[in-house]
Amino acid sequence: MKDVCSLRVKNVIVLAVLFLVVMTLFMAVLLGVLLSSFEYAERSDISETTTRVTRAIMDDFKNQMDILLTYSNWDSSYYLMKTYSVDQMNKRLNVSYGNIDHVEELTGANFIGYYFLNGTVAGKVGYDFESRMAVPMPTEMYQLPSFLMENIQILSTMNIGYWTLKDGTLFLVMAAPVQCSGCGFTDTPGIMMWARYIRSVYVSQVSNRAQVCITMYNLQSGKELDSEFTAVWNQIKSKPYIYPNSSSIISEWKNTDPTLIRMGNVAESAKNQRICFGNDSSSTGERIITYQTYQDIYGQPSFVLRTDFSRSVRELGLQSFGWSYGFTCLVVILSSLIIFVLNEVIVVTPLVNLGYHLRKIMKNTENLADSTIPVKGITEISTLTQRINTMLRVVAASSEQIAKRGNLLEQLLEKASLEEQKTRILLNSISDMVLAVDRKTANVTMANTAFFNKTRYSQKDLGSISRYLKEFSQESELLSKINQLVQSSRDSWETHLTKPTSEKIPVKISAKLIQFPNSEKSECESLRDTYLLVCKDLSEEKKLKEKKQQNQQLLESIKLIMEFDKMFNNTQLRQEFKKQCEKERSVENFLFLETVEQYRRIPNAQDRVEKQQQVLKQFIDPSGDNHLNISGQVLQQSKVEIENGLGRYDALDKLETFVRDMVINDTWFRYCQQRK
Question: Which InterPro entries does the UniProt entry name for this protein (predicted)?
Answer without folding.
Answer: CHASE4, RGS, RGS_sf, RGS_subdomain_2
